[in-house]
User: Fold these one by one.
Assistant:
Number 1:
Amino acid sequence: MKRNRRMKSILVLSLIFIIAFTLVGGCAKPTAPAPSPAPAPEKSDGPAQEIRFDRNIKIGIVDTYTGPPTVYTYDARDGFTLAAKEINAEGIHGAKIEFVTRDEEFKPDKALSWARELITREGVDVLCGFMSSASALAVSEYVKDEKVPTVVWMAQTEKITGEAGHRYIFHVIPNTRMSGRAAARYLADLPYTRFALVGSDFEFGHAIINTFWKTMTELNPKAEKVVETFWPVGEPDFTPYISAIRAAKPEVVVAAPGGADQIPLTKAIGAAKLAEEMVVYLHIGTDHAGLVALGQEAPEGMYGSSPYHYYYPDTPENKAFVEKFHAEYGRYPNFAGFNGYITAHLIAEAYRKAGSLDTEAFIDAFEGLSINSPVGQVTMREYDHQLIQPFFIGKTVKDPGKDYLIATDIVMISGEDAIPPLEEIKKIRGE
Amino acid sequence: MLNVFSKLTKGQFFSFKLLIIGIVVLILLFAPSYLSRYYLYLVTLILVTVLFATSLNIPLGYGGLLVLHQATFYGVGAYAFAIFLKQGTLPILPASLIAPLIAAAFACFIGWICVRLRGLYFSFLTLAMGQLVWAIIYRWYNFTGGDDGIHAIPVPDFLRSGSSVFYTTLIVVLISLLLIYIIVKSPYGLTLQAVRDNPQRCESVGINIRNHRLIAFVMGGFFAGVAGVLFVLLERSVAPPMLFWTKSVEVLIMVLLGGMFTFLGPAFGAVVVIGMMTFFGIFTEYWLLFLGSIKILLLLFLPQGVLGYIEEMMAKSAKKIEKGEERGYAQG
Amino acid sequence: MLEAKEIHAYYGLSHILFGVSLEVKKGEIVCVLGRNGAGKTTIMRSIMGLTPPRQGQVIFKGKDITRTPVHKIAQMGMGFVADNRRIFPDLTVEENLDIASRGGQQKGAWNKEKIFTLFPALKNITSRRGGYCSGGEQQMLAVARALMGNPDFLLLDEPTEGLAPLVVRELMEQIGRLREEGLSILMAEQNVRSALKLANRVYVIDRGEVRFQGTVEELEANEEISKKYLLV
Amino acid sequence: MLRVENLVKSFDGFLAVNGANLTVHEKQIVAVIGPNGAGKTTLFNLITGHLVPTGGKVIFKDREITGMAPHRICHLGISRSFQLINVFPQLSVFENVQVSVLSHQKKVLNMFAPAQKLVVEETYNILEKVRLADKAREKTASLSYGDQKILEMAIALGNYPELLMLDEPTAGMSPEETKATIALVQELAKKEGLTVLFTEHNMNVVFEISEKIMVMQQGRTIAQDLPDMVRANKQVQAAYLGEES
Amino acid sequence: MDFLTLLPDFSTMTSQVFIGLSRAMILFMVAVGLTVSIGVLRVINFANGTFYMLGAFTAWSIAMWVGGTAGFWVALLVAPLVVSVLGLVVEAGLLRRLYNRPRLLQLLLTYAVVLLFNDITKIIWGVDFKTIEVPLKGFVTLFSNVSLPSYNLILLASGPLVAFGLWFFTNHTMVGKITRATATDREMVDALGINSKKIFAIVFMLSCYLAGLGGALIAPTTNIVVGMGITILVNAVLVVVVGGLGNIWGTFLASIIFGVGESFGLLIAPRFAIVFPFAIATVLLILRPTGIMKSVW
């Protein structure tokens, strides 16, 4: 009885402590990042005057760290951390990158709340992250008012740089429009006309399929849609869709599964041996995260795409990145790891170019910025802030050295080919 | 730690409570002048949640109705307001009045069906119907924006600064709480508590218990709708997770942690839970682990809620003085 | 056999028993008499460990069982027949008996055959669900169920409540036969008349206190007690 | 005033009440007696609408009220107490009675007046009648058993009923309390002009105050007559009193 | 654009029915554990979804450790046992304190356990996508046009098997009978000399075993991720309520109604398919508030 009461008092006290702690923090007024003791700007009499930043650059990451998407968000965070190490070794005009992460649980209201916290309490210079499209869109509107540059690195919604685009938002992942166009470009070269279009029934699935079909019919007017169907997200059993596809007798199946649907869908395709009968194309179908989970169960000969494969292109830059990543975390990066990595480098490069910690200068420098990434040159398009990055489409194959399948016959669709022309974006934005 | 209160008698005890509330309100009134922007936002968010939690407590704490899906009305209020503003069908003032009424209408419909059932069956029917509303909003792209939600909701400029949103929220929440307080202390409120304690007896003194419960349910829905409107003012964005069932569980935990049999318990619970979420969210990646454990400890050891516990201790001390420690209280 | 010493029992905050002491010797039938709400059922529950007394002691076969878990007390040989019978309604009569069986193969142990010789009425309804039995049948089943655990001490809480007079008579006879089998019995009753026919000794309870104890003859001689506490 | 005709109630085939008949005239004190399980409480629940009869009729003041909702029946002027204590444990004694007074005055949907200040006088009047006024501010749970039973009755009085139904009003009371309670019932009936229908185990009480007795056995009415006639009724003696005396 | 127009009617319908049935069995696996704990312990255990998740994760670990197709079958045997032992720990440590608490408190406490275990699972198993190789490959042709993956047959069979097993357990074993008795009157069981604490622990372990079994069975068809328990939980809870609390056959029937209902929902209005289970639950609860079969409460 006594112990119980003491327990209760302790609980109440610790609670009050926690609340007080959280709230008292707020009474100390503004929390502008404390200037780190940077050496006084050295006077240089050379024409190229060396710039020294008087504080570090602070970056806030808001992403989903609970639930199914974590397989990607952890990679993105780790890729970012790796890049930050590289950057800090060198410094950006004497400054380093610091960053903090917040978990938004795939909930837009939480994302907004954390974005506010990072901007107004932590005082971050740049915001990154966002697995969820809804979160990205919600935060995008907020940072527009706050004038804080924000890089979306996982949500693929085309709205981010389309109708909802503005000066402060940047997109570092092929958006749904690009993915759809890339797929259409690739598949239009094949001699087929009968298409089955399927996808997860949420914004993302519809967006990819719509763009794909629009581009496909432009490229190949003879293309014919024999079936189109969408399944609820989280569908446990794909057999009915496979039967429906089979029955319609298409030559090509284009599938846009969202998030965790990819694994069971690929399994079902493998079990039904659908890839042996027709061309099956899966958006993000050859990404490492999915294939490694499926092991030997993934179907051979299935077409799939990914913005990144750790084994392709076989360039020294890529190898260096993969080796470092593997040494650090004991695994190979999936496409999210790559995105996190180049995002950090893009931000660092923009600051280098800007030579100032001023937000507007940073954005001006970011617009049109090109850097060399493990997959070659990538460029931030000036007008809509969509990163022009290549997109890879390949075919699955068993690799004797590995216990999972990899992509082969990889074709690179260059960013310029995939990205929608400026006129299209302008039209969407009503300009 | 609570020895301070042992010097208070019952009447003083009440004025002491009033004093504390007065001080809190006074502190809040000047909040924008000493709080940094983030904490001003956090306090605004807490205020919205305070209203949300208190709205749940009308049917739950006072009516004894175990509503498992209160977030439905919060979400419906927010969505209705968002859609009015986004489509520009209504100016902001009427929209902010009609949106809670729509939430109340939903509550009326759902409640009308649910109050026929007793106990847990009632609870689960509210859960099922709430999820139904969620699923429809989640899917109906053209109208509700589907899973992407609605963003960039056009709120007039004068409601865009942190302090104007704060004051609007503060005023609306205070008025709502006052209204709820008046209702709870009215004959309706008294008889509602009687219905909670002993529905059979209430029937036999001539109270239509179904009506009473329905009214409580609708009122809860209305004030949840008000909270939803305030949320939109604050965040200018809505998305389906707002009315997913886990949101309802979250707010239920707030009410229970604070204490469902005290008027300010749910409000206190909202402060506690949001405070803890922020605290752990900032300081650790495994915040769920900490939050979950603390919730378990609190629910296990303080089943009457934190404020309920504090009040009980205060009341006990006050009583001891009054009765001159005549008899010790057995602790159950 | 059983001794309760100064037991105080509570339900939550309300104090029900105020220092009740009583004793049952081997082979006795002892009756606890009193009005509705006098505390009879609480005495039974306290002894059985269902409402453990906060103060005082219960001693059974020389052992202090005040803090012993209920099932251990039952295993020591105490049978319990609850006041509203508490038959498992979803289980058949046979299943009700089966799950209570703890006799094993030892000689003289209660088994279903032996039960059916004592309560022939149960034999014909073995597959009927407990919930569908009549009051009398349920009462017999409740006693039979308690016997299946081979107790040597039986707590009977108002066994005649709500039964037709004829059934009461039959039941009382059967209880009498249990004494012949060597069982000691503590019985709570409101039905004074039928209880007195059977009992060796009597305790009269009112408001959680023992107001009278003695033999049946002594009680019958004491009109004041009967009038005041038993409304006879 | 109240007429019960051939009332039947079955629970899953078990006939709890099987042909009950009862007539209560204005300002009469009527007792319903019968052994445990005879169906007295069920009969009460059927009259007050807590249970819906399977068959038969209940007529109150020339109006059929069979199967009507309990709260509506109450507003017609029937009010009852319960056998087991059935009060509002979390409310104070005063509030317990206040609830029923508010209900009687149709003020329960008033949401904006402070309840504290409403119907105070009426409530105190009733509490005074049953001699609980000095305990008005106490928590119900701290009352003695006897006082809770009285409070039970006071709640019923809060509705200003024409017909007061008491289910075992003296069950579990001490002889002194019983005596006081009976006096109270008689006094109320006389002063307020109430009609009283009650069930009771204690035969002394029954024969002392009732003007008419209805005897039930196994759900059936086996006699309905003046006390002396009932006492003399052979069937009643055999079925019910036989056991006790 | 549904495939109603694209397929011959009969085979669409039948295949849809079979798909709905295997969907129903998945649901049943989660719901049955829930209904057992509700029926006997009277605790609505939200953590049941967590044990389902743990079943899948444990099965994965075991399958990986053993390797090959045999790995899965070993996992199917062992994983539920591991989960039920874990359940015992939770029961003894936490749930035991809840049996006499208000229902709302029980609900929220078990929900807090869900949060806790989600993080613990993340710490133990990490965040990678995980999946187990399907142990039975190939298809079974049922009618000329309808074929099912062979593994679905196992799922289809497991539901009725589990339901039948449970029925046998509760009606024809001594422990089962005691369990039924405990469900209605715990005190009386104690008074008969049976340790009801032990019975409760056994029942809770059984319910965890069933949840773990469900998780293990489903593991090969799906993506094993943290949080998989939460998504299915609310449907499972509704299935249990619609079926009649604690009624195994009711749960079975309700699962089928939900599963097949959603399948046909896909035919009628694919976009609103996820609305169907909730709509069905709402309608059924309005029509039969205490469930389609007798509730034990």
Number 2:
Amino acid sequence: MLEVRNLSVRYGAFTALHGINMNVQDGEIVVLLGANGAGKSSLFRTLSGLQRPSGGDAVYNGQPITLGRPERCVTLGVAQCPEGRMLFPQLSVEKNLRLGAYTHRRDSAGNQSELERMYALFPILAEKRNDPAGSLSGGQQQMVAIGRALMARPKLLLLDEPSLGLAPLVVDQVFEAVQRVNAAGVSVLLAEQNAFAALGIAHRAYVLEGGNVTIEGSRDELLHDDRVRSAYLGV
Amino acid sequence: MIIFFQQLLNALALGGAYSLVALGLTLVYGVMKIPNFAHGGLYMVGAYITWALLTSLGVPYFLALGLSAIVLGLLAVLLERVVFYPLRSAPHIHPMIAALGVLFFLEAGVQLVWGPDFKLLNSPITGIVDWGGVTITQQRLLIIVASVIIMGALYWFLKRTTTGATIEAMAQNREGARLVGIPVSRVASLTFFISGALAAIAATLYAPTSLVSPSMGEVMNLKVFAIIVLGGMGSVPGAIVGALLLAFAETFGGVFVGANFADVVGFAVLVIVLAIRPQGLFRRTA
Amino acid sequence: MSLPTPRATLKGWPWLLVFVLAALVPLLVGKNGYVYDVAINVMIFAIAAYGMNVMLGYAGLLPLAHAGFFGIGAYTVGILMLKVGWSFWLAWPIAVAVCAVLGLLLGLVAFRTRDDVFAIFTLGVGVIITQVINKWDALTGGNDGLNGISAPKLGSIDFGKSASFYYLALLALAVTIFLVARVRSSLFGRSLIAIRGGEDLARSAGINVYTHKLRVMMLSTALAGFAGGLYAIYVGFLGAAITGPVTTFTILLYLLVGGVGTLAGPLLGTLIIRVLQQFMQGLADYQYVVFGPMLVLLVLFFPAGLTGLWARLRPPKAPVLKEISDAGV
Amino acid sequence: MLAYEDVGIRFGGNQAVQGVTGSITPGIITAIIGPNGAGKSTFFNLLSGFYKPTSGRIIFEGQDITRLPTHEVVALGIARTFQTTTIYKELSALENAVLGHRVRTKSGLWDALLGTGRERREGKASLDAAYTALKRVGLEQQAHVLAGNLTQEAQKRVSIALALATNPKILLLDEPAAGINPEETVNLTRTIRELAAGGLTVVLIEHKMSMIMTLADHIMVLHHGQKIAEGSPAQVSRDPAVIEAYLGGHAAPHVREELKADLEQEAARLGSQHA
Amino acid sequence: KVVNIGYSGPLSGGAASYGKDCQSGLQMAIDEINAAGGVTVKGEKVTFNLVSLDDRYLPNETATNVKRLTSQGISTIFVPHAGGILTVQPLTTKDPNFLLVAYSSEPKILEANNPLTFMLPPRYDNYLQPFVKQEITTFGKKLGMVGTTSAYGKAWADAVSGEWKKQGGTVGTDNGVDYGTTVDYSSAVTKALSEKPDVLFIGGPSQPTALVVKAAREQGFKGGFIVMDQAKFEQMNQVVPMSYLNGAVGVLPVAQFPGTQVFVNQYSRKYKKIPTSEAALNYMGVNIVVSAMVAAGTTDDATAIRAKLASAAASLPRGKTIFKINGVTPAGHVDATVLAAYVKDGAFTSLRLPASLLK
Ligand SMILES: Nc1ncnc2c1ncn2[C@@H]1O[C@H](COP(=O)(O)OP(=O)(O)OP(=O)(O)O)[C@@H](O)[C@H]1O
Ligand SMILES: Nc1ncnc2c1ncn2[C@@H]1O[C@H](COP(=O)(O)OP(=O)(O)OP(=O)(O)O)[C@@H](O)[C@H]1O
Ligand SMILES: CC(C)C[C@H](N)C(=O)O
Ligand SMILES: [Mg+2]
Ligand SMILES: [Mg+2]
């Protein structure tokens, strides 16, 4: 279980997160909604150890994860598919994926089967396995990024706008994949602009505005919340 | 004909020496995007460390080679930690200037400690091989053989091992590497360790055929930079081919246009190659 | 059309002040040849640093053949004066033109490459220039160098005298800064900054990246030659060593210390480093043991150079477009 | 206006675009859709002169522009934005737009050095053009803000302003709404429609179907580098090949109609608010 | 009173070793004078202090240093490289005047006819005739060329070629290399040896010169060497065994001159290395200048000091004399007996130069 406690993030004089509280229970898909600049990515970067918080903390299964040490988060089972993908552009698609399993590097059999699963999930990647990741189209790169995060066999998957730039069909596939991964026991925290699709698969959701959690609730509560409907669902 | 084969051997030995120095540089430059102008300095310090081990401690040559490699590896790690790590997201020329500062420091420091005079580094391998008038010292043969082995090993390490892949991954996206759990600072240290150790090995192998002096690194610096650019930055086979190309250009260019112009020939080759293949010989076009 | 009202710009006055003060310096130092010498060297190399700055600071290209062009300018003046018997006042502009043309020729080839490769490519060219100067005995005197280039006279002013030369260098520097400032605020200069920010984007904005690069290369090498010409008559002796990579890196250092891409940086950096080096001569053998780490500390703690430090000390200001209409200083 | 005949490009062994023939109709909004990696961005790169096709020709207003360098293509009146927001983050929004107008000015190094009248005139003209462009994308209030400090959506607008400042006849927009939330997407949609209404020919790539369906007059579908369909939104969204390759369930007409109604309503509401 | 003596030479970079060698001679002379309580100039007790500035072998830095030194009131300045010397020569007579003590064997320095230059080493052209004679008679008529490509080296190479031909030999193609930047001499040596020469002309800084010898011997060369005066046998011998040097002709090592034992011993004790003529001549230079100051009764009037150099040199006390010295020529050049060495069976035999050649 992930628990975020009074977490604040500052960039110089600018505060991106104002002491937020939230949690993700085991087995849940939790969606994080928020406008551009609301602080979603800041939260994700902090949870995966890339960014140190200025206050508060977050614990996963009782272990602190906000120490600014990403390798520790991965080892604890928290993996992120980041905004901006952060792939290794000159390495082949397959090497990118394999590096996702860096923390499991001794288990080559396990990684091989994991790799096969990724290729099954995104068949186009199998075709491009030997191409440098940087030569792929935007959407294909997004698939590599998701695949790379999954290769770490996370228990909690952090997905920062995974549908960005994906074709509608692929967005469906990604959300399906998220559901499947979730069904296999992985909890998911998902930041999305595509609120419709995201809420479709979510158990619960939070709305982040200006660095504060302003709304939280179950999927149905949010789907029927007027503020959410107007601002995020465009209804 | 004898002269041709003699020059061929000369070029191979020189190319071997160049490639040993260039490999460490290409690793750091190509892989971590740091134009480490201090590399020549590390090479020079490597020679001095070996020399000191041999003369004042009486350590046997091959042991000194190993020890010197370790010392220089650690020195390079220190350099990375103290200088380059804090500059990891600074614009390109910053690490370059810092590296120049380090080069100044190393050169002046060595001069202060050991004086400006030339030193001799004696290797136990002193024989000369004579193939019907074509001669080569065994030390030079050792350089040729060692460079081939080290190049092969390095290539295998980068392309075939997970640790090698982490080095490349980190070079291409540091945050991405952290995100998948690669301990980037350890990998950076490792990269620098390898580069420092290679510099010391190169110096220890090559110095017996030459001299040890504080400015020996400067002379090497320009050449090895030319080499790795010639070969394509970060490319291990490129560094080797670049080294051989420069060595052959200097050796045979010296034969045809006069030894006087050997240095010009080397850089002329660089300029011509880059004018035709702006990305270097071995780099894929982006 | 709601254009912002053009701000009454006072930007030029600090420079005016600097130059007025500099012009008064001789009244203070009297006949101390050493002070003049340091000052004159600072000004000559600052001009060269401005030449590098238009490339590196504005267009984002690192020209490592810079000292080569400095040398070509110096040798052109030296050769024309010694071997052809021309007056300096004729030789100097010719030297500048020669450098510009050679810069253009180099650019035609060098701009096939980009980024680091461009830097190393030009480094190679720089080495070749030095070697050619060093080896072309008949023209350049080879290793002997050219000796006995004398400072010119203009009417009753003898530039062989330190004070007169000081004013000549000061004038040359002022002209350089004035022109560079104009370039910086011009449409051309803005386009260079666009190229530095991203070539693809510059292209998509319709900027002809190649010709812009060629022009700025010419400006850069011309300034190097301008400084070189002055150097030739000042030192009176030319040797190939001054045209090599070490000089290039020294100039780069001045630029970096002062602040790349700023108007004051090249002058400030050259001044600080050269004066500092004079002080550090007192450290004798420890000179570079101290100087090396100082460089490291500098880039670690003042990454934007000294002008960057200045900017940091002042309260941040919202970026306001300097009006194009009042281009110039 | 802009016609392409049998254009294709191959990268090594990968035929990214292949045998695409057709033309862009002036004055309307054309959308290009297709799966990831279909070659849409590559096709833009071909039209805008960033890539040189390995086969085929591109004709703009009767002139063969296939081999023209990018800046000349821009000068003829084709402007583009990039898929990942590409602007000068360290410059202000206004300065970005000023750079966009550079293609319409002639002042060079000599004008700069001599401070010519042309330099002054063109400097003024650039500023005017830049303001106009910022106005058209609704950024006049943020003219002096550092572009990097703007929101994601405003940055997208800066990139459009930069392109507009080149005085283009055709504007190519590569995923202008990627990474932008629904509310702002609606705003952006409105801006684009206004641009088209002003007589500009717009071609855009987008994966947000709601946006495409409300905006596009004409849609072209790429798949594996080839054109697999072309026509009105209604035609295309009914095309089985398109549904199969791209839309999946998103083609279901009722969803589309619903969204379209919602968005139009929203646009109207916002429009009245802003007016 | 403490009088400052100036020195501008390469103290860092590739030529630092050379610059330090020169500096050590100056320092040693000054230390000795001071230890002896200084000298009396016009009734005043005077001791000395060496002010050294680094010019990295760059002429313009030499000029800056000289201006700095003169502005501090220093009127005797030692410079050990031709480029720097030629650059600052015109400054000697400009206000303020100073005495330029030149350590370089470049004849051009004398040709400038500068009234305030004092040149220490013998002109290199002294060596040509005896060197060539020795080698051509011992080994044969074919000369191979692997000199250094510095100005000085090229001038030497030309001169030696001319002399060789004059004495009836043939000269091979020029394979000069830059001894400062060359990493490996094998190629140049291979090329020179392919013409089967009897004798090789070599020489630059001592240690690289020794590497050329090494490369030649390793490639089976059995002939002799003409070694340019810049290279010193005593330093070459630290790089290659004496046996490699058999058949070579060059400058006689300082220690081999008659009467240098005291200096050599003291120097070796102080600096832990063998003195070469860099140290020895600069050491003598200081002593001559100081004697001239005493004789002239001034420490800062360069013209007056210069006028007394000849007598000071001629009457230099035995203890301060390293090389036998006859005086100073009107052109400002030390007039000393020049001795060369021929290496035979691992030992130096001195080769006296005919007196007629001394100019
Ligand atoms: N490194 C940084 N330095 C300064 N400010 C930052 C930095 N990273 C983010 N910010 C600011 O923090 C705020 C929150 O940013 P964040 O990226 O977390 O938002 P987001 O919700 O992910 O937005 P988006 O939907 O655009 O991805 C924004 O105003 C942003 O400008
Ligand atoms: N410079 C390049 N070098 C090699 N291959 C490339 C290059 N640019 C694009 N490709 C390849 O061309 C194909 C088309 O890429 P493109 O970027 O045009 O797709 P796209 O339709 O824009 O996709 P998306 O919607 O995901 O952005 C991809 O398979 C990609 O890997
Ligand atoms: C042999 C030496 C006295 C020559 C000296 N190196 C010079 O530059 O002139
Ligand atoms: Mg985000
Ligand atoms: Mg695309």
